[in-house]
Amino acid sequence: MKQSYMEIKPPEDGKERLQKVIASARKKKRRQTVFRYLKNTGLSMAAALVFFISAVNMNSSMASAMAEIPVLGELVKVTQFGRYQYENGRFEADVSVPHVSVDTDSRAEVKDEDASREQVREKTKKSAAQINREIDRMTDILISEFKQTVDLGVSYNGLSVSNEVITNTEDWFTLKLTVDQMAGSSSETVYYYHIDKRTGEVAQLSDLFRKDSDYQDSISREIKRQMRRQMKEDEKCVYWLEESDIPEWNFKTITSKQKFYFNKKGNLVICFDEYEVAPGYMGCPEFEIPQKLTQSLMQKTSSRGEE
After folding, report:
1. For residues 286 and 219, is the Cβ–Cβ distance under 8 A?
2. Which residue among 77, 160, 191, 281 has the highest number of C-beta atoms inside a 10 angstrom radius?
3. 3-state class of 50 per DSSP?
4. For 11-54, what is each residue's pLDDT tens digit?
């Protein structure tokens, strides 16, 4: 079944699908943006690429207008740092590059009893810089690969990168980055960047739980339970769970670096990439884990859901 699925030919309406993805992403963009591109990249391509970073740096009112609100816990904010656009009929790209920064004028109280307010602020700045480097590195690679495809001039290709703040509380920050790529068929990858604002540290899944807890096993059992229930309720729903042909594809357990976020109810949501636990038509599967399961395993029990 998996082999047959992988051999399915790309859809004929690939271009129309990508244009819909691009249009949807553009709706999420802020009205004012900065355009940015890689070093050693010329302007020979007929790209709709404009640069005015210098103007933003010189004009404080312009820079202020480009800052994206909300301010999270009066500490962290997201600015649309750069944008790359290209379109020539066969190739299309719209890449928004966000940057995380710390509001130095914030008067927010720090709840970490073991650290001063200033120490947490400095840690948060370093965490924001780390996230920005990761985003820059990834978007630079994506743009570079897209330009190489344009230079080859083969087939049809598209790229869309959009972002949104999905968690906004006094003690937790999450930025979501969505990458859509089109080359015959579409592919979506989602990235999550977290800062624990009580400590200022970049966070991953393992940081949420006590070291002596069996959180991976407990959460994995819950995900498998949900997978089986969904497949029972909908015959079109398929997860690679108990496949005998290619058992190595079967989902066994989450990792300590599994993608996640907290939803508005404060529940942990575990996220998978396309093809990680299911066929591509299933998209990027997500599983909401109830608090009654995670609360006793977590190091910190305060809510991180969106207010």
Report:
1. no
2. 160
3. coil
4. 444 445 545 544 544 444 333 332 333 333 333 333 333 333 33
